[in-house]
Design a protein that fits this description.
heterodimer, A: mainly alpha, flat, B: 85 residues, mainly alpha, 3 helices, 65% helix
């Protein structure tokens, strides 16, 4: 009887379901997944940067960019300011929902999406007016390769932000961390895309 | 020290701080973006005011610094949780 009572008491403290998985490191599964994704992205960009520096340092003799090519640095600088601003607006959106301010979330997400679309539109406009294509030698190829790869990431980010915007208009998301994961994850991705652009802009347009 | 812990007080080093995780918390990712933005602004300023080579060298130093912090973070995260006990 005594042992049965002890058994009941023991059962009260035991969690239901199978025991938790053994962890060989502090890192949790979700973080590991995102980490592997980001690492693969960094390696992808790294391959393009390696090509860029090879063409510039090893295979190039003379000025950079090579003579007939000219890059619109001022337009790209303005575009950089637009993209960096969009990171601030997505941060504002998340800070708003953390404090229960739905209006701030709606405004922040809408502004982020609009700034992102503006960035992509200006970049496409730059491609139209730049005066060379990806076929015009190694410089043209690597320029379009690097900026185009980044542009593709912006497009993916815009798709994620569009979903977040629609969900926001439908009344989703709340102040609790688990209730605004649908904004937090696109926000983290958007910051990553912005960090990559800062590196691409500094390398390709300035250095 | 032992009686302080027994009374429910924190150790002198204070309560353990939550580690920054830019892959889970947007605030931490935003902090990294701001840091990279500041670093990029410094590199651009050096490249425009001094020379492209100096800017590129400084950029390389920043990349190494970023790599060092990333490695330290990864080293901690991939340690066994038994280290905490």
């Amino acid at each position: 009887m005594e042992s049965a009572a002890a058994g009941v008491g023991h059962a009260e403290h035991e969690p239901h379901g199978p025991p938790g998985a053994h962890q060989s490191s502090r890192i949790d599964r979700q973080t590991l997944g995102i980490l592997l994704f980001i690492v693969s992205e960094v390696m992808l960009f790294g391959a393009f940067f390696a090509s860029y520096f090879f063409i510039r340092v090893v295979a190039n003799e003379g000025p950079w960019p090579p003579d007939p090519f000219e890059l619109p640095v001022a337009v790209a600088g303005m575009n950089t300011a637009i993209l960096v601003s969009s990171s601030f607006t997505v941060h504002w959106a998340l800070e708003s929902i953390r404090h229960g301010n739905r209006r701030g979330l709606t405004m922040g997400l809408a502004m982020t999406w609009l700034l992102g679309v503006t960035f992509l539109f200006i970049q496409l406009n730059e491609y139209v007016h730049i005066g060379f294509s990806a076929r015009d030698g190694a410089f043209g190829s690597i320029f379009y390769g690097l900026t185009g790869l980044h542009g593709a990431h912006v497009f993916v980010g815009l798709c994620l932000l569009a979903l977040a915007n629609v969900r926001c208009w439908r009344g989703h998301f709340g102040p609790e961390a688990r209730d605004h994961l649908g904004v937090e994850v696109p926000g983290i991705y958007w910051h990553f895309v912005d960090v990559m652009w800062l590196i691409v802009f500094t390398t390709v347009y300035i250095l | 020290m032992a009686h302080r812990l027994h009374d429910g007080l924190h150790t002198l080093s204070g309560p353990p701080r939550e580690r920054r995780n830019p892959f889970r918390r947007e605030q931490d990712a935003f902090r990294i973006l701001v840091s990279v933005g500041v670093a990029a602004a410094i590199v651009i300023a050096v490249a425009l005011l001094i020379s492209t080579t100096a800017g590129a060298l400084l950029g390389f130093v920043f990349v190494l610094l970023g790599g060092y912090f990333a490695l330290r973070w990864l080293q901690y995260e991939f340690e066994s949780p038994d280290e905490d006990r």
